Automatic annotation (TrEMBL):
eIF-5A seems to be the only eukaryotic protein to have a hypusine residue which is a post-translational modification of a lysine by the addition of a butylamino group. It comes from Aquilegia coerulea. It holds the Pfam family IF5A-like_N. InterPro entries: IF5A-like (IPR001884), IF5A-like_N (IPR048670), IF5A_C (IPR020189), NA-bd_OB-fold (IPR012340), Rib_uL2_dom2 (IPR014722), Trans_elong_IF5A_hypusine_site (IPR019769), Translation_prot_SH3-like_sf (IPR008991). Residues 1-12 have a biased composition (Basic and acidic residues). SUPFAM superfamilies: Nucleic acid-binding proteins, Translation proteins SH3-like domain. Keywords: Hypusine, Initiation factor, Protein biosynthesis. It comes from the Eukaryota. This is Eukaryotic translation initiation factor 5A. Residues 85-136 form the Translation initiation factor 5A C-terminal domain. Transmembrane segments: none annotated. Belongs to the eIF-5A family.
Length: 139
């Protein structure tokens, strides 16, 4: 044995994987797929027949779930694609305070009060509800 000390750094995280593999030929419309590193919802799938030069190919048209941009990809149907783990939670808006915090109602009847609206005007335009039309009578 040698007297050398060996130091190892942890390179990975202990969390669960953000994606899982799935064969391209089994992905359907309204499913999810990762295209160019972005999680997307599939809006259209078309499959070409096997030709003399190889596999059948799947053409995916999908919408990025965060930016709503349209992305496309063509993958051989027998190859694996990354599928994101997607959990969607809907909240009902209760109130927007003067200091920019929003109050949301969860499905189990509790309130969530720890979210603040973005202060950047560019980001405010991306908020899924229209702030200018919100009033306390709408709640």
């Amino acid at each position: 044995m040698s007297d050398e000390e060996h130091h190892f750094e942890a390179k990975g995280d202990a969390g669960a994987s953000k994606t899982f593999p799935q064969q391209a030929g089994t992905i359907r419309k309204n499913g999810y797929i990762v295209i160019k590193g972005r999680p997307c919802k599939v809006v259209e799938v078309s499959t070409s027949k096997t030709g003399k030069h190889g596999h059948a190919k799947c053409h995916f048209v999908a919408i990025d779930i965060f930016t709503a941009k349209k992305l496309e990809d063509i993958v051989p149907s027998s190859h694996n694609c990354d599928i994101p783990h997607v959990n969607r939670t809907d909240y009902q808006l209760i109130d927007i305070s003067e200091d920019g915090f929003i109050s949301l109602l969860t499905e189990n009847g509790n309130t969530k009060d720890d979210l603040r609206l973005p202060t950047d005007d560019g980001l405010l335009t991306q908020v899924p509800f229209i702030l200018s039309n919100f009033s306390k009578t709408d709640c």
